[in-house]
């Protein structure tokens, strides 16, 4: 499963338009053979969707799925929004975070709150596809990052895993450094996952279900909500436990260093498991340590986009059958086979042995958070500013509090 990178969304609109050109029909249609044609617009390509469509059409032989796709880039939503407003709406379409999606606020998405299959979603997935207490989509997979560690290197300093608290983690990093081992690395081209985990755990412990949305809406500030987490995270750099040169290191370079046996720990997700298994090191992934003031076992992560129904579709029954099918065991097994991590109530799957702890105690417990999901239409600008501010902080050019204050100033300028 690919990580939902905070905001990496730039591809030419012309290419995306070409991708969906074959889908000329408007909405759902009937055909001469009596079949219902269900039109669908997804972020996944034809090859990825083929197993699901074939299984669905086998189960419902009177429904034909006419699927088209757009690349997972910044044009996908604008193209779909043009179709919706231009009278060429598909019956079913991919829906990301419902809380700030114009397809929901614009009235294009059907309220499916009372559909029985909705109750199968995990709490996190349901919240992701909800707005103002109503559910608008079905999301069935998620991702969560954890801290990968080299068992052999940790063993050299008497450790057998990732400690449960942040202070203990810092102490482990110091032991590794004193032993001549590079303790930890992370790349700073987005909000660091450790910071996201800290803030998510803080919100959970305080009962703040709005998360960063409460900042965006002016109810609180980045300074109030982030400064403590930034202070704790910055100890890695302030104590010399992580190199300030991490601002110029990519995720791939970190994996390469780990696979060469030169790095004890780094934070990542399931998307790196193939490289890790090919690297030859004895590795495992642990949960992110609990930060002071936060709920235990919280990590950075997010539900994946799901499926929604056009509010004015002429074939609502067929569309609901698609959503119901996508949360059925048959479709979930296909998701698991494709390497995606399913987070549906009552469903379990075999995961890489190194991922078991995060899967059971993080993902299945809905203990993960990704700030960008709450940033709304301003997310591109906010993400760009956060990245710049984190790099300044890591380089020692400002304090954690100044970093948060600068983000408040940026948010104010976007109003």
Automatic annotation (TrEMBL):
It is found in: Cell envelope. One of its GO terms (cellular component) is cell envelope. Residues 1-24 form the signal peptide. InterPro entries: Bact_solute-bd_prot1 (IPR050490), SBP (IPR006059). Keywords: Signal, Transport. PANTHER family: ARABINOSE-BINDING PROTEIN-RELATED, SN-GLYCEROL-3-PHOSPHATE-BINDING PERIPLASMIC PROTEIN UGPB. Belongs to the bacterial solute-binding protein 1 family. This is Extracellular solute-binding protein.
